[in-house]
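Hey, can you fold this one?
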Amino acid sequence: MNNAFLCVLGIASLTTPLFAQSYSIENIGTLSSNPTQPVRALGINNRGHVHGENNLPGAGSAVKINGFFWDGHTQVKIQPVSPALAFGGAINDSDQCVGYMSAGGGALHQYVWESGVTHDIHLGPLNFSRAYDINSSGYIAGITSEFIPGYITSQFRPILRDPSGSWTDLGTFGGGSGFTRAVNDHQHVIGTARDASENSHPFLWSAGTGMIALGSLAGATAPYAIDDYDRIVGLSADSAGLYQPFFWQAGAMLDLGTLSGGAGAEGMARDINNHGVIVGNADDAAGAEHATIWSPLPGGGYSAPVELETLIPSGSGWTLFDAAGINELGEITGTGWLNGNKRAFRLTPVLSQARLSGLQPGISGQASSLFGMGFTPGAPIFIAYGVSSGQTPVPGCLGSFAGIAAPQIFTVLAADADGRLELPVFLPVSLMGLTVLVQGVDPLNCGVSKLLTQTFQ
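Sure. Predicted structure:
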């Protein structure tokens, strides 16, 4: 492996904007024999794979809920240990899915699903645990149930489970219970926890700082997602008691606004990627809920919300009401109505150039992966890097230029049948703070991917 490349290919800041002006849309499908039963998307990874929930027929008129995994072509049912329920949760870049499931005898246990196998990873002394999120290293944010001194009933406790199965109770602000919601690749966790008066507060937790309160716009607040720069999104009540989508960074909380352009509407931010692009849902002036995207502005702050349905082909038959997840390539998953049935979707940016994700998570001392899309299926893709911008002709391609001065070739990968690629790389601790420009060169069509500038964390 080229050490010069490793000395600069780290990611702490991503300067290539990923907001797309248009998207294609795919129906993830259903596992149910009854087409009217809902399908909901919960998350998407950098392979473009989606995790969610599908309602299925139960005994008599009952409905069973089952998590699913979708690899871009096929939807697979996540089987619970006990043949009843398997609720969804989250997915990481290794295609591990987490949630919670029936485990027999009335127990509900958190699970991790991978390669078609569901594993019971229950934690705690009582028969309830739930996983909410899993990061790229396999750390899981969840909750368990315990009896706490001073409380008559059992309390939910926020926990972080490491890949070996050991776990940490993250504590509270002095109250009995707390909940996690998400974990980033620094093992920083967000959620809500109660104080001694049993009032709930949103938190950011790390092993170094412990639990810190995030504050609010004016009332009850729930964080939903955190990126690898500790930027947090969610919903918070305003002074009128209406829930607004928020963006939080370094102690400051921003109201992202809704589609109504005025008072009386609500919304929530559901996910943020490392490029700072946010997705969720927001009300319009008539009070209707729509899947929404907010894009960071070059000078700071955010654009006005944009309704995602306006960015897909007209006449598609879709009405999009929620966006649940966005990956580093700008693909979005969510839920909408398709011909009267609730279905999960994946939005794929319509590209004029191929796109690289940057190494994810791009943290020194950890394993990372570079993802790409939009290349010629089956083509050899040259991954080029350098330390300064400039125009360099692509050999054999008249009029085609890389955007890197004196580029070096790190490796050559074959794009898969969908024009995607994936490259695992380990980033030594010594590389922190270094910067690189990265581009993919597709010699079969003389194309180059969008230039990406990145710095190590």
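Residues 1-13 have pLDDT under 50 and may be disordered. Let me know if you want another pass with a different chain boundary.
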